[in-house]
Every structure is written in C-alpha cells, then in structure tokens.
UniProtKB/TrEMBL annotation:
<keyword id="KW-0804">Transcription</keyword>
<feature type="domain" description="HTH lysR-type">
    <location>
        <begin position="2"/>
        <end position="59"/>
    </location>
</feature>
<dbReference type="GO" id="GO:0000976">
    <property type="term" value="F:transcription cis-regulatory region binding"/>
</dbReference>
<dbReference type="InterPro" id="IPR037406">
    <property type="entry name" value="MetR_PBP2"/>
</dbReference>
<protein>
    <recommendedName>
        <fullName>HTH-type transcriptional regulator MetR</fullName>
    </recommendedName>
</protein>
<keyword id="KW-0238">DNA-binding</keyword>
<keyword id="KW-0028">Amino-acid biosynthesis</keyword>
<dbReference type="InterPro" id="IPR036390">
    <property type="entry name" value="WH_DNA-bd_sf"/>
</dbReference>
<keyword id="KW-0678">Repressor</keyword>
<dbReference type="GO" id="GO:0009086">
    <property type="term" value="P:methionine biosynthetic process"/>
</dbReference>
<dbReference type="InterPro" id="IPR000847">
    <property type="entry name" value="LysR_HTH_N"/>
</dbReference>
<dbReference type="InterPro" id="IPR005119">
    <property type="entry name" value="LysR_subst-bd"/>
</dbReference>
<dbReference type="GO" id="GO:0005737">
    <property type="term" value="C:cytoplasm"/>
</dbReference>
<keyword id="KW-0805">Transcription regulation</keyword>
<keyword id="KW-0963">Cytoplasm</keyword>
<dbReference type="GO" id="GO:0003700">
    <property type="term" value="F:DNA-binding transcription factor activity"/>
</dbReference>
<dbReference type="InterPro" id="IPR036388">
    <property type="entry name" value="WH-like_DNA-bd_sf"/>
</dbReference>
C-alpha cells in the first residue's frame, strides 16, 4: 500500500530534481531516501524515475504518483490544520465582556458555579472592553457580552435573560429619600455620580430625564461601586443603579427610591456572534442560564 511518506518523498523529488536535495528536504539521509524509494517501487512493481537521468526524469508510473501527491498532500495538510484548530477551540476559554459595572458583584459567583459544573472549561472575564464590548465581540475578541442595549447587527444575536429595576440611590437624610418615587423634574440640575460612562448613555438620563426634557446637573465619575456609594453618602449627588448595588453600601446611610411611579426597568441580554453560538452552544447556554438565575435572585434581594 502506498503511504503518505512515499508521496512526500516523490513530491520532494519533483520539487528538488535530485536524490540528495530531496533527502535534505525530507530531513533524512540519501541512503534512507533511496531505501524508501526501493520499498515504494517494490510495492507498485514499477520504477518511479529513470536512474542516472539529468535532469531527473519520472517514469509514467512515477508521474502518476506525483499527480497523486500534489492532489492528496495539500488536502491532508489542510485537514490536519482544521482538526488542530477545532481541538484548540474546544479548550479555549469562553471570553466574556460586560458593559454593566455593577454586574461584577453577582457575575463572579456565577463564574465559580460554572467552574464547579465544568471543571475542564474556563471563563475569562475581560474588563478592558467595558466601553466597546460589542465591537470587540463582532471582531472575535470576545465570545459573549452582557448588555442592556442591543443593536441592529446581522452578525450578532441577542438573547434576553432577565429584567432588573434601576433605582435612584440617595442619602437617607435627603429630601428625595422621603419620596415613594421621584419624577424627572425633581432631579433637574441634580449632580449625577456615575461610572466613567458618557452622561447620555446613563439609564437615568437616556430613559428617564431626556424623554421628559429634563437636564441633569454636573456629572461626577468614579470607577468603583464602593467609592460611588460613599460619594452619595457624603452628599455629592445621586446615582441610578440596579437595585442589587445597594448591598455594597456596607453600613452607609443610603436608600433607594423608584424612578417614576411604576419604576424604571431595564432588560439584560447576552450578545453572541452567530458562529460562536454554534461552536460553543452547550457552554453558552449554561452560562446564560446561570446569569439569568443570578440576576433574578439579585433583583429581588433588595
């Protein structure tokens, strides 16, 4: 039977034109190459090339082997690469991005649960894409993004996970704390403390103040939830946060008030690429289920 090593030898002969050069290309000695050719000729019961021909000339049988090698070997190489890539994908981490700073509180326990259920798999939470996570997802740098703001994009799929309420966080000794709910006009000119996100992207502004034509006061930003809550407790302003965020207040004199009589509710979506959905579907599905359960639990915890 003709083996791949035989075809590689024949192809090396065709490409180099001599036994010595072919042996060097195949990383074997010339003696070993000659022995392999004799073995091949014994199997096909025919000569592969004309001895002592310059330049090296193939027999009719040898030319058929060259054609076979040029057809088969590239296909074998391409298949090997595809199989290696598939194997690497199976063991690659599932990369998650998030554009909700306060979600880290419950996302870390979710990752721990996932690890318990899938000890051979890995989740990577990549925080460097906080402000352009969907772009990174589309470009293949992330596999899943948690967002409340789906966009029209044919390459991305948005799976609805849950709803959560956004509340106004205020100091307990402020006038706003005495209200059952606040109206947009009550927040006109009020200083807004937030994560470093453009003011126009804040839920409080985009879905509560702007539709009512109310302009907020100055924006003050900080990166950490604890710091944000401390600044509210110090009377620097107010913030709009998912209701689970107040669990990080740790004894601060804070409370939450509903935004509007019926409250302001926002959706949470898992965004994934269509190709990633097919490739990681079992893991993606389980992660999304864990996140949905966690957000429902957090939404009623406060």
């Amino acid at each position: 039977m003709i083996e791949l090593r035989h075809l590689r030898t024949v192809l090396a002969l065709k490409q180099t034109g001599s036994l010595a050069a072919a042996a060097s290309k195949c990383f074997v000695t010339q003696s070993a190459l000659s022995h392999q050719l004799k073995e091949l000729e014994s199997r096909i019961e025919a000569k592969v090339f004309v001895r002592k021909s310059k330049p090296l000339a193939f027999t009719e049988e040898g030319l058929k082997l060259v054609d076979l090698a040029e057809d088969i070997l590239p296909k074998v190489s391409a298949t090997e690469q595809q199989l290696k890539a598939a194997s690497n994908d199976e063991h690659a981490p599932l990369r998650i991005g998030i554009d909700c700073h306060s979600c880290y509180r419950w996302l870390m326990p979710v990752m721990a649960q996932f690890k318990q259920q899938f000890p051979d798999e890995r989740l990577d939470l990549l925080s460097r894409y906080s402000f352009d996570a969907l772009d990174a997802l589309e470009q293949g740098e992330l596999d899943l993004v948690l967002t409340s703001d789906p966009i029209a994009n044919h390459s991305l799929h948005f799976e609805h996970l849950s709803e959560f309420e956004v509340k106004l966080v205020v100091g307990k000794d402020t006038a706003l704390a005495k209200c059952d709910y606040v109206t947009p006009t009550q927040l006109a000119g009020e200083a807004i403390i937030s994560y470093p996100v453009p003011l126009s992207r804040l839920d409080l502004v985009q879905y509560f103040l702007a539709p009512a034509g109310v302009a907020p006061g100055p924006q003050k930003t900080c990166d950490l939830t604890n710091m944000l809550l401390q600044r509210i407790a110090c009377g620097e302003g107010v913030a709009s946060l998912p209701n689970w965020s107040l669990t990080e207040a740790q004894g601060l004199s804070l409370t939450t008030v509903r935004l509007g009589e019926n409250g302001l509710f926002r959706p949470l979506y898992a965004a994934i690429r269509h190709d990633t959905q097919a490739k990681h579907n079992p893991l993606i599905s389980r992660v999304m289920q864990l996140i949905a359960n966690a957000t429902r639990t957090e939404a009623v915890a406060v």
